[in-house]
Fold this protein.
Amino acid sequence: MLEEVVAASTPSRYICLICRNPIPHSGAECPHCRSRLSAVVGATPGLLAAVFAVMALLFYLTHQFDRAFDQTRLERGRAHYDMAVALAGEGDYGQAVTHYREALLHERDEPRYRLGMAVALYEAGRYQEATPQLLDLRALDPTDAVAHRLLARIAAREGRVEQAVGYYRSAIYGRWPEDPARNRVETRFELIELLEGLPGSRAVNDLSAALQEETQTDELVRRVADRLLENGAYEQAAQSYVELRRRGISEFQVEASLAEARYRSGDYLSGRQAAERARKLGESTELAELSKLLDEAFALDPTRPRLGTTERFRRSRETLRRAVALIDSCLGIGGPGFIGPRRDGLGEVFAARARAMELLNEARPSDRADAAEQAGLTAVELWGFKGRACTGTWDEDDALGLVVQRLTR
Amino acid sequence: MTERRRYRRWRLQAKKLWRRARQAPAMGDTQRFLLLSIIIGIFAGLVVVCFHIAIEFFTWSTVYAMPHAAWWAVVLWPALGAGVAYQLVARVFPAAKGSGVNSTKAALYASDGYVPFSAVTGKFVGSTLSIGCGNPMGPEDPALQMGAGIASYLGRVFRLTREHMRLIAPVGAAAGIGAAFNTPITAVLFVMEEVVAAWNAGVLGSIVLAAVAAVVTSRWFLGNDPLYQVPEFELTTALELLVYALIGVLGGALSAWFTKAALATRAHISKRPAMIQAALPVAAGLLVGVVGVQMPEVLGAGYEAIDSALHDRFPWEYLLLLGGLKMVTAGLCFSAGTPGGMFAPTLFIGAMIGGGVGGLAHEYWPFETSSAGAYVLVGIGTFFAGLFRAPMTSIFMVFEVSASYVIILPVMVANTISFLVSRSMQHDSLFQVVGRQDGLDLPSVEEQRETLPLSVEDAMKGEGGRRVIPSTMRVDDALKETAKLEETGFLVSVHQKGWFWVLRRDVEKALEDGQGEKNLLRAVRLRTVVQLYPDMALDSALRLLGMYPVLPVISRVNKQRLLGTLTLDDVHRAYGIQPD
């Protein structure tokens, strides 16, 4: 077609571009102005029109071809992706990876496909292969939380703890494609689990951050409280359990955990109250043991209000007696083969014990209130020597410990 | 009624406009050539897009289907594709046979820009079948020839002058390669470095226009994504450059070896009967298939494999194995005449060698090194630089693909070393030796580029070598002084004004007129003379010597200083022609 158009529009003559006089052929010297710049008269617009028409036709055909190609490409990619998802759902991650790879060959910029493959590779235990995929995803979208979480898990598995912590933090503050609140919380707890294995109180800090930054659902508060309790942050744990109670949650586990948190933080009285509430809701061996301990401390405590002087004196003497017994147990006094102090630095301990024995031997002191106070102070002093004296085996006295804490305050 | 009148008026106006357009001298030859360059770029871009899509379509049914196909299907596809493509090219499209670069060069130097259109069709069909079925060849060289073919056809349609027709094929070649590789700078440099060898502003402008138009068209359809997703690159320590240099040495040595091996294999094949020659692409395809069963990365152009290597997805042993196998399979296919180009395979081989050496260094090098991916990126151009002897193209190609400035230093080191090592081991480039083997004695662009032309200073007679007469000399004295000179005149120096030409007959006439006692400045007509500089090409000076028998050569920094003179005899002597 183009040839015909060309034939029809063949230039009849050439002219000089400068003076516009006719010249014999293109590039020939103009006889008038000696210029060699020539132009074709008439034919170029027709020819150009024909060429542009052919170009437009080819453009249209290429567009159609490209559209068909794109459609097929996307369909094939999607088919492979669907197959991969199904296989991954069945746990066949090896085959799923093959299909994800095929899907990516058809659409390499689709992050869903790449993420799917990374997850499948991770699940298949092919961490080395999963890492570059995840790094690609991270490069494509630095806020991709899913990729960061997987990278964190791989780093944690490979012992790169600090890098894992960084990835986890990026995941927590990153963009989640679905259910962001739940995913963020889950990731935070994964991070906390990792931090629990590290020295220091980094896990507790993150638990506190979880409470501050996330939506405080009952479930979250409960989980945070439990982890705080496990990590030794008893005061904070107790506060969280109280928060749960304030929200109207009256459950055996909450009350029992609160009792333990209170007991551990030294507030055995509140712990005892919580334990009593818990026992109304249910029963467990641990709770029974805790209740027994708290009752024992309650019966021993000379600092309780509304006690008479006689009773306070009696309890103080009993506390002192148990403190002496503990020290004796630690030092082996009264036991077979006891030959006196065998270690240096125990002089103060024996001196305190001697004072305690004096107080105990004084059956009727003139001032019972004063004697009660003296007994309490000596018990605290002896308890303070526990660390120095008790290096072997001894009979632990938890109830005494709780009372001494109260006395110390 | 009103509607009809309005329509008639519109038709009349359109006719008038059309008539005016037809009568107007549209544009000069140069403008037409530039406009045509853009049109060529768009056409080449469209055809290359279709070519790319056609290969992809084929690949889906063959290479991509291989993980789920029976092993014998994997083995048979490349052989089948190569066999059918070879027969099609041999019987239906003989113009599509051979290298696209050589065909374009032949159009430029031997056939006044003529590339038959059947070469476009043949390259399209043959290469689609061959590459689409998994043969380890690249689409760039066919795209280059398709671009040249389209350009040549459009040049004929537009009845370009002979000079422009000669240059039209390289313009199309740049468009084709630009669209195929999605890198306009690389396309321009490759054509200038490998085909044209002249930095003529007019040609460069057309080539740039065509390449840009083609890349824009290609990106319109295929998107802006680069060929490879390149990871971040950084040079860890300066000592790392030693590893890059080693990659360059290895790339250069292997490319020289590859050229020699391909040459020997082709020579061996050309002596076999036609039937065996026709069977060889099939045999090579079978070998490709056998390798592809275990290592599918070797199949096809291999862009995905390079991408994976860039992202450290292969261990170094595997990278070296892939590079070696690609070298063997691509070399065999190329020698056997399987349609397709060598552009992509060279990138693949270079990338794998680079990655392999880099991975090895990463493991055993006593200093800190980058990841293997960085070495893959640098290695991409080394084999290319050695094989095609286009160091500038190879450097800018990696630069353009990576869009990283940091990479330029290692790439320059590796590619230049590769180029020098390859040249020391094998004098000519692959295209040149293959062309010569096919009976095409095309000029070596590399030699053309490096041949130093003679300059004026090589031929001129230095200061004092030839007598220059001062203008203050008396006419009779001047005549006596120049009596022994053979030339029709002599040079005269005028204080503060420079040098002039004086004809002996003018001096004689002045003497006859009784002006013998006057000085030359007053008595004789001084003619202006062209002045030369010592660094000017002798060829340019030669053209002027027709008008002036003696030309002064002056200093560029001090125009009053005469450095020497030049005559036709001096030029002859410089070119080794002894004067009678």
Summary: Chain A touches chain B at residues 2-3, 6, 10-11, 15, 17, 20, 26-27, 37-48, 51, 55, 58-59, 61-63, 65-66, 69, 72-73, 76, 98, 102, 105, 108-109, 129, 132, 135-136, 139 (CB under 8 Å).
